Known about the structure:
Layout: E1 8-15, E2 20-26, E3 29-34, E4 37-41, H1 46-60, E5 67-72, H2 78-84, E6 89-95, H3 99-106, E7 122-125, H4 129-142, E8 148-153, H5 173-181, E9 183-193, H6 198-207, E10 210-217, E11 223-230
Parallel strand pairs: 5-6, 5-8, 6-7, 8-9
Antiparallel strand pairs: 1-2, 2-3, 3-4, 9-11, 10-11
Helix pairs in contact: 1-2, 4-5
Amino acid sequence: MDWTKQDLEVIERRRGEAGEIQLQRRGAEYEIIYNGVFLMATYNGESEKTAVREALKAVTVRKNGPVSILMGGLGVGYSLREALDWQEVDRVIVSEIEPAVIRWNRGPLAQVNDRALGDRRVEIINGDFVELLKSEAAAVASDPSKAYGVVVVDTDNGSSWLSLPANDYLYHEAGLNLIKQCLIPGGVACFWCPDREAVFEKRLAEIYSQVHFNMIMEKTGKEGAYYLAVS
């Protein structure tokens, strides 16, 4: 189905942290537009769900007991929902900088992610993911038992299209090392992207012990992709 031919209804448009953010609906599907550019939609979620699923598969074969997840970017709640569907997951901390996105996930988007924000295992933080990573890395340095099994970076459309300029930090050496500091040994960092990114992949390989790239076909017929990097 060509979703672009469905009738468009704007649910809400408002000023966000770095520009205009809009929630709109086409038929039964929702889209989020940021500064006039498509950011994410409910019909493009298979790659992000698969990324979280494969990251958890990789971690649970190495680790007995509960797994905690640190997640940057809430989106339409698909990554969070996938994490919560795993009984091994006992805690998910999600950083989302846009208050409207959090509110939409408690409102119209709750129906597409099975009310993920209502799960007792979830802590949602309205704030910058980089700052949260810094505080969590410091906490892990003081107490390694606070380390995460999985860190999910889904704040942008890959390293080449940033929702906020400051997020560039996440895809370079300092940011990648900070993410690694938050992980348990053998933990997995997960990065969503629209396509293969050779320069970013090289940076990952210099810091992480293993790097895996995968592409997934979305129901629109277009592909989404992700990197898994093992600490």
